[in-house]
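Just curious. Protein, please.
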Amino acid sequence: FIGKPAPGAPAKPAYTGPKLKSFFWKKVQRGGGLWDGKDDPIVGEIVEEKYLREVFEVKKEDAAAKKAREEEAARKAELEKGKKRNGCVVTGQRLQNVGITLKKVKLTGDVAAQAIWTCNTTILNDDTLEQLVKILPEPEEMMGLKNEATMLDRIAWSPAEKFMYEIGMAIPDAKDRIGLWRAAMEYEPLLTSTADNIKTLERAIEVLTSKSSLFATVMKTVLQVGNIMNRGTSHGDAAGFQMENLAMLSLVKGVDSKTTVLEVLVRMLMAAQKEVSASSFAAYMSDKRLKDDEDSTTPPPSNITSPSSTSEGGSGGLALEPKALKDKFPKALQLVEFPDEVIPVVTAALQCPLQALAQQLAQLNHSLQRMRKVVSETKSKANTNSSPKDAVTGEPLPDVLMVQLEECATAYTQQVSQLTLVHQSLKGDVAMMLEYFGEKHSLSDSSEGGGGEEVALLTHILQFAKDFKECYERVLKADEELRQKIIRKERRQLKEAAAAAGSGATSVAASSAVSRTASTTGGCTVAASASPTPPPAATPTQQPPSDMLVVADIVDEKKTRENFSDLL
């Protein structure tokens, strides 16, 4: 029913039908909404009272059956008196996990309690402590174990339950003590790591915001390239650009649908490194140079000691236009190496963002506060009766943890305060770096670690540096392949020239021999005719002597090295 019957309505008669097992629920006091009191016809078709009676009707028990049931229960209770039951506080998977861990650590409750109290790192190393924390009793488990401890004549505990009870009774705050102990042991490494991370981020800021760095020059080069490409558009005449746009350099391609802006940038910086104009260098290190020579109808040179006349400029007229940059701009010769300047420091800085540093400092300060608070409370209590006793002498064990906590708080409080001030200054440096690159940020004196804007900025810069380095290596590889093609072409031309020179020398020698024979016989044509036919002159396809081939190879290799020593 919903609510109470309306005033003045007749009272319902008392129910006298079969009694069913009760279904306890909390009644809604007011009708409405779902409980508007309107019957749904389909419900009457679904609910079958006969079936409910078969399942839930409570049958009246006659006196004989009741007496037999009571006697059976008494008999079972008598049998259970001499038999112990298992504990019911720690059961199932939890009990199994504690038992497995105890087999690993191989410790009893008393030994573990003494080791925790005396901070014995020989018995409790880092791994053992980590395992031990997982099996320490929770407060509600300890309450249940204390109750069961009064009924051990009827309850049989497993080794796991016994361990949890012993360590819980010896050191009620064992979990907190282990946490403080580990914090004291790990405090100095964490402090050192935080200080190193701050220095790493400071170094990255210093490198990236230096206006005389290679990276700064490359960024200004990108800006000029973009402004030239965007002339006459709303994107032109830009004072700067956001770092996320660096990714576009790999996506925007030239009219050949192959050459990207990034590759053009790489070519220009390579040309600056070699002190030549970018356009002539790009043309010189392209397949056009090789194709022009291969398509040329000019016969190969005849002088084997002089390599192809196209090795400097090619038959297509390609030539390098020199630029004097070394004296005026010596840095231009190193711009292609800017990734080596940027990638290491930015990669390291991304491992320690400002927000993570703020969390590390908060952890250091929180640990110090806990240590000071626990030491103060322990001194005020000064109760040795709760200390575990020595297994041999029975004397209370010294509380080594309190000594360690006091020493840690005294030694590192000043260092943490100084590091906190350095972190505040670092936030200002990060904000300055973001503003230097024209990026928006949410850093302020009151903010903890910002919104990670510096992480996004560093990520864009790192990716650009990696893309540039990869493109540079790809261009170098392509240029090396071209160099090898040109070497093979010049070698082929030299061999053809050597073959042509060798066949010409053979023809001259044969003519001289015929003339000498004719003059000796006094011009007897018959005698000359009767003499054996001289071997035919060597055709251009015949190979020259082997020593001439070796000379051709040497000259070719030497000249090729001369051609590319300054460029590649």
In short: The radius of gyration is 47 Å. The beta strands are 85-86, 155-156.
